[in-house]
Protein 1
Amino acid sequence: MVRAAVGHGALAYLLKPFTFAAFRDRLERYRRYREALPAGTDAASQAEVDRALAELRVGPDRSVAPKGAAPGTNDEIARAVRDFRDNPAGVTADEVAKLVGVSRVTAWRYLERLADEGLVGRNTDYGKAGRPKTRYQWR
């Protein structure tokens, strides 16, 4: 049944029983999807389409922290990256660590988890000498 619904154009679905919070989340994601597509035109770039479709994706349940992860720390790391969203260069694990007050390795672990969940993007900056730096940007 789910394959048929998706084949006919369903963008999201909920299976009973579901909570009001889950319903509201799906509606909110659909609203962001609609806002991400350019209005009044059929033409859109691949990046615009990718961003719009990313709004529909439902990641892992973030209300329960993965083993070994503290929800408060995860939120602080995410907030630090979000604060740099207007910076085209993004932010490094070292910068996030200093902002949040954790070690660089701890910041890196949380940033990698956020990247794996699709909440932040990662780009490698090879620079001129030394180790390359990974920069993270909020999506």
Note: The helical segments are 2-7, 20-36, 46-56, 71-83, 93-100, 104-116.
Protein 2
Amino acid sequence: MTNFDDLVKLLDEIEIEDMRQRNEGEEKEIRWRIISRDAAEFLSILARSVGAKQIVEIGTSVGYSTIWLAMVVRTFGGKVTSFEIDPKKIKLAQSHIDRAGLGKFVEIKLMDPIENQDQIPENIDLVLLDAEKSDYVAHFNSVYPKLRDGGVVIADNLVSHFDELKSYVELVRNHENCSSAMLSSIGKGLELTYKCLPKESEINPWNEIIR
């Protein structure tokens, strides 16, 4: 197991390289494009608060957010299933995850979950959605049937790419069995969507207010 100081050093290295790529204007197709530190910290706290054992990540990139999620499932005895379509990023991600000593808690799948829904695990506690913005709606529809009642979906970039994600916001805000709200001050904006427990909206009027 990697010690705490080494883990912090690894996360710092990834953040510094990501910032360098952004500052030098590298093309987005080859940039690492990781989530922000405050978003990662929030994600970790949220995953711990729901006791997440089954986590799905859509968009591994180079494994930064995967490491944060894997630290949670290590505690609860679970697994992160992460989907990525870029083999070069998967290679980097696996290297980072192995350096963190978290390899046995992560399975990275080189595939698009929209086209391979049978590869999405059942009874998901938490989903991180951080892929191409035009695919958010399709990704949500793919994971929703496998999200447990009381599970949550976190979608990144809701402020930075709001115009591109209007259809996603409309979907989750008007979903008959979800409550959803934007956390605009965290990272580049997160949309937190909660899958209601059976009949919850009937017994909890607050659910209708926040929807």
Note: The mean pLDDT is 93.
Protein 3
Amino acid sequence: MDQASREAALRRIEAGLDRLAAFVGGLPHGGVEADMVSREAHETLLAAHQLLRTRAEAAVAGIDRLLNGSEH
């Protein structure tokens, strides 16, 4: 995959993650229990979003060893 394709893929991944984060953040809250579940899901998603963004950036930079967990 060439650099332009990697960057385009990264932009699509980030846009999808941003839409998902906005959706989860906008879920209706129904009572204390639903509020806590929604809030926790949103925080977890935001943490995952940052991890995935970092992993996607590593892929775009060609640092595949970070994605594979190996040091070749």
Note: Residues 30-37 have pLDDT under 50 and may be disordered.
Protein 4
Amino acid sequence: MNITLTYPFTAIVGQERMKLALLLAVVNPRIGGVLIRGEKGTAKSTAVRGLTALLPEIEVVRGCHYGCDPAEPEPCADCQERRALGPLLPRLRRRVPLINLPVGATPDRVLGRLDPERTRLEGVPCFQPGLLAQANRGILYIDEVNLLDPYLSAVLLDAAAAGVNYVERDGFSIAHPAQFILVGTMNPEEGELRPQLADRFAMMVAVEQITDPTEREEVVRRRIAFDADPERFIATWAEAEAETRATLSRARALLPEVVMPAAMLRLIVRLCDAFHVDGLRPDIAMHRVALAHAAYHGRPRVTPEDVRLAAELVLPHRQRPCRPSPPRLDEARVEAVVQEVMAEMVAPTP
């Protein structure tokens, strides 16, 4: 992919909630991924590609299949062996990888497999890494994730949650780092994603076609300008891109210092209970999203605003029973829970 010809992230008209969800996933990659639902022509793929241009280059071990960080105390097995021969590993800087996972990809292509030819020649099992290895420390993008093989979907989501890819083949097993931001896009007209899999995406955003004539005209105007002279168009948006890049950098630096007050944690739990979501995954996801949102806005403490936003991104696709597409939260109900918890904070202690 040629970064210089990538449509700028900040030039996308509207779709603010989608852009925010992607930015929060960058602020804290441990949030757990983003599911974007919407019809064709809603800038889903454009946003994912543009996101990579906002990310700083990373330092990797030269020749490492997994792009290990030279400063990582526990890198992959290959880098550990190389480090044993000398403490300084050869290194280089590169763009954060964006790996596209085709819907028709085989498990071997995604997870990796034994290389039969090398194994025969060398007399020892030789592993050929797959797409998960290439995506380590980057973004794994799955278009039409709802059409992906269910088994492959489950394995991918397990790897994304653990940050490790476990492969077992014919008595051979290997584990390698697979820490990536998972982004899945889907058109609900082509089929829904099973609830068990949708639940594994921390955040969900429903995007819709732009119907406002003024905004629609601006979308067309910008697209024409980009197609006519991509370099000039990108230069026009360079300042906005730099500002967003700087905001991301500050947010990532601030994130470890952001405080979650006890009342805000209580609010998260109450909201999850009020909307009858299953398990503790939603609570944990809301906690991480609220912290990232506070950091993105430069706040040292989580506020009700951060928790509201987290609820809107984390809870809709987890409600039981599932609501008609696209899933949405009852905003009045959210506000009622917020006000209830806030009232408890100011109530005098008996």
Note: The first strand starts at residue 34 and ends at 37.
